[in-house]
Amino acid sequence: MRRKLVAGNWKMNGGLAANAELLAGIKAGLDNPRCDIAVCVPSPYLSQCAKDVAGSAISLGAQDVSAQDSGAYTGETSAKMLLEFGCRYAIVGHSERRSYHGETDEAVAQKTVRAIANGVVPIVCVGETLSEREAGKTNDVVGRQVDAVLAAIGADGLGKIVIAYEPVWAIGTGKTATPEMAQEVHAEIRAKLVKLDAQAGEKVQILYGGSMKPDNAKALMSMADIDGGLIGGASLKAADFLAIIAAA
Ligand code: PEP
Question: Strands, E, within 117-235: which ranges?
Fold first, then answer.
């Protein structure tokens, strides 16, 4: 059985005092968790949060990573830099980066490759927009996004990634895919992974993201191929994040 992962995506939220309070609240409420836990924090706070999660069950993650190792790339952060701050994970290809920063499937694939090469586990986000779903294109879109990454990392990379299926219409909207809708897409993704390598493909954690909350987390994570959650809004409240961890 795959271990579940509950990862918080703080997005551009927080501050020194708020981060300390949130992490203290989460740590205080953790009771022998049986899943992997991560918080993906804004880059300026990596150092602060690395210290705050040290020695706890919480791993640290970033929200993006550069496709380059170093050089004249203003504003970017390399996987090596993330590692120096103890980052285990980096979110790659979040829909907000795909839509606001024009990240293409190829760019997302290159970021995934760089993360893996440097020992950072990429949480690769894929998902369709509402109009794509309504046009019956969900599997095509998600399939294309997954294929681009698999073509770049090959079967050897499978053991080093996490995938997050995040329907764009469900992110931050309060609308959630039903467990059955999400499972259908997760199963399609799983089939692609298994086709590349049967054993390694079965082991990849596929998270669901999109308005996962304490009241729907258990039903979603009970589905066969839903191996945890990438949590936005609900990861900013210790009680909600802890309730999702308990559901996992
Ligand atoms: C996200 O941004 O990855 C996300 C899933 O956000 P929310 O939980 O707020 O929908």
Answer: 121-126, 162-165, 205-209, 228-231
User: For the segment 202-248, what is each residue's pLDDT rounded down to a tens digit?
Assistant: 999 999 999 999 999 999 999 999 999 999 999 999 999 999 999 99
Residue 114 Cα to ligand 1 midpoint, Å, equals 24
Tell me the β-bridge partners of 61.
40, 89
* Domain coverage including residue 101: 5-247
DSSP letter for 56, please.
Answer: S
Which pair of tokens denotes residue 5? 């992962």
Domain count, the chain: 1
**Annotated catalytic, 94?**
yes
Ligand 1 binding pocket includes 244 (Cβ within 6 Å): no
The pair of structure tokens assigned to 83 is: 């590692």
Structure token digits, residue 32: 């022998």
For residue 65, give the amino acid letter. Answer: V
CB 149 within 8 A of CB 112: yes
State the Cα–Cα distance between residues 221 and 114, nearest whole angstrom. 30
Per-state percent for the chain, helix, strand, coil, to nearest 5: 50, 15, 35
| Maximum Cα interatomic distance, the chain, rounded to a whole number of Å | 48
DSSP 3-state of 100: helix
The alpha carbon dihedral of 16, 22, 24, 27 has a sign of: negative
- Residue 142 sits at the vertex; the CA angle it makes with 139 and 146, to the nearest 5 degrees, is 125
Nearest atom in ligand 1 to the alpha carbon of residue 173 is 10
Q: Would the pTM count as exceeding 0.85?
A: yes
> Any idea what the CATH number is for the domain that residue 202 is in?
3.20.20.70
